[in-house]
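Write out the bound-state structure for zinc ion.
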Amino acid sequence: METLTLTRPDDWHLHLRDGEVLKAVLPHTVRQFARAIVMPNLKPPVRTVAEAAAYRDRILAAIPAGQQFEPLMTLYLTDNTRPEEIVTAREAQFVKAVKYYPAGATTNSDAGVTDIGKCDRVFEAMEQADMPLLLHGEVTDPAVDIFDREKVFIEKHLIPLKQRFPQLRVVLEHITTSEAVDYVLATDRTAATITPQHLLYSRNALFQGGLRPHYFCLPILKRETHRQAILRAATSGNPKFFLGTDSAPHSRHSKESACGCAGCFSALHALELYAEAFESVNALDKLEAFASFYGPDFYQLPRNRDRITLSKTTWRIPDQLPFVDDGLVPLRAGEALTWKALLN
Ligand code: DOR
Ligand code: ZN
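---
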């Protein structure tokens, strides 16, 4: 049997939600990942250190008995975030980053930032505290084509931001374009996470034989040349690029709707999907560092010590998983996958 053994990975961009949904999805992540950067876009969002502490406790309480998992918390930046909150966050230790959502960009982003220029005092505090800023890097201007929103964000907002705060450590999250790859490569103290869906699919997947809502996420899938650019970046061995699934659970009915939610659920089989993407360009030897080394190095945390094994086994991804009062449809549901994580 062909197998691949890696240092246990971490997920540097994850949506766990709360309550019953948290209990339904967390066991999937815990099976593969030791730690995860947990997104704060709850309703209401996680805006303060006190709210992050309470959310962290709810996550810890939902870890299945006998399993190990460390949630790494983030704060949701708003127009009203105070610089003092950053100082408190730094002292609290368990808050690892601050997340910027442009207001209205995506799921639960209504309370996000309306004008990035309004947050300069917070960015100054973050730069001083060496607190990373995680960016949902898209403009929300409805006049900008949805496929250009990442590129325009970089030009209009990110380049000026890094000129104002060159020491600020930034993660451009879930990158989807060659422009994002080029920007990250050219800019100090800047890294990027990459999702499995953006490595494996171009925007054609959204329309293959009909409308495919389970391939809809934000930033939206881009054209094939961009997919190839981010696949090259992920498999290049450059430590600026590391794993972040952006696994984002939505019930089947909220995806299969006249106005479906954005988000792909990949926590079930994330590592296998990444293995397939790396294998497609003969780069399986680069998977371990992407999945397990470069993330902790960026966040200045120790690398994990235990290991996980994948075997070359073809299996069928379930059509749906049990989920609160409805089903949860995983990425590529009902189709085959050729790697399987051996879970202990
Ligand atoms: O597709 C997405 N889903 N993109 C995001 O930015 C948010 C996420 C979610 O929370 O569902
Ligand atoms: Zn996300």
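---
The mean pLDDT is 97.
Residues 149-164 form the longest helix (16 residues).
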